[in-house]
Amino acid sequence: MHKPAALRPGDLIGIVAPGAAVEEPAVRAGARVLEQAGYRVRLGASLLKQTGFLAGTDRDRVADLMAMFADDEVRAIIAVRGGYGSGRLLPLLDMDLLRRRPKILVGYSDITFLLVELVQRADMVTFHGPMLAGLEKNLEGAAALVRMLSGDTADWSMAASAIVQPGTGEGLLVGGCLSILVATLGTPYAIETAGRLLFLEDVNEKPYRIDRMLTQLRQAGKLDEVVGVIFGEMAGCTAGADESVTVLDVVRAAFAGARYPVAFGVATGHGRVAMTLPLGIRARLAGERLLLLESPVVD
What we know:
This protein is an alpha/beta fold. It has 2 domains: 12-149, Murein tetrapeptidase LD-carboxypeptidase, N-terminal domain (Rossmann fold), CATH 3.40.50.10740; 158-292, Glucose Oxidase, domain 1 (3-Layer(bba) Sandwich). Helices cover 27% and strands 22% of the residues. The chain has 8 helices and 14 strands. The chain has helices spanning 24-36, 58-70, 95-100, 112-121, 139-149, 178-184, 207-219, 247-254, and strands at 12-16, 40-43, 74-79, 104-107, 126-128, 158-159, 162-165, 168-177, 196-201, 228-232, 262-266, 277-279, 282-286, 289-292. The chain has an 8-stranded mixed sheet. It has a 6-stranded mixed sheet with strand order 2-1-3-4-5-12, sandwiched between helices. The longest helix is centred in the first third of the chain and has 13 residues, at 24-36.
């Protein structure tokens, strides 16, 4: 895997909007957090455009993204938000350029399309972490993001809130937003899970919908050869007033016969404090504890 260079104070961070349209106040507020942390910020040329519900046309958005990767001065790229639209860019990516210029790319939710694609087709480490919009309300997550991107992972670990299946598994860490991963099935961009440690999270999906998506993953063979599965907090994935099944009930039932470890409830992605999870590096799930086996960046 190609690891990006560690971020240093004074480095330039590029801001892009690969999916949904963004609002300028949210962009400015998030940029201030990064600037106060000691970094310079450059906004994508088309960042504040709007084409329907998207942040400009597909060509606009992919041009911004590729320009940030092509620019030697830009050391990291952070998405403003997710929403919808990143998947439309996959056929337009210049994979040769991406392989030659590995850089930090941060996002989650709809950005899962890009995180997975870069891990799988560009052999690039990516980062499932907090996006620009909302950074001012998630200073703990912002600080953790800076530490991760700077290479300060000596004491890094994540603890899940529940063990669904005990055990230990090691492998390349992959995954992201469950509904996005399911959307890749049947396409050339489907996630590869064999021999890998699979991370799954989502937001505001009722338990039966989570069950439906896990069933689809299983029927597509994506849960057969994993070495472990770890879930995020699944924020807002609650049953209605007249329903008694919880999302944890669904996960326990779905993995009742699993021969690999399964844990639930790490704080990354959609949740109270969005911590940063590197994808594309080796990690170990042991009981409720997720540990990195290598640094995600190089000095």
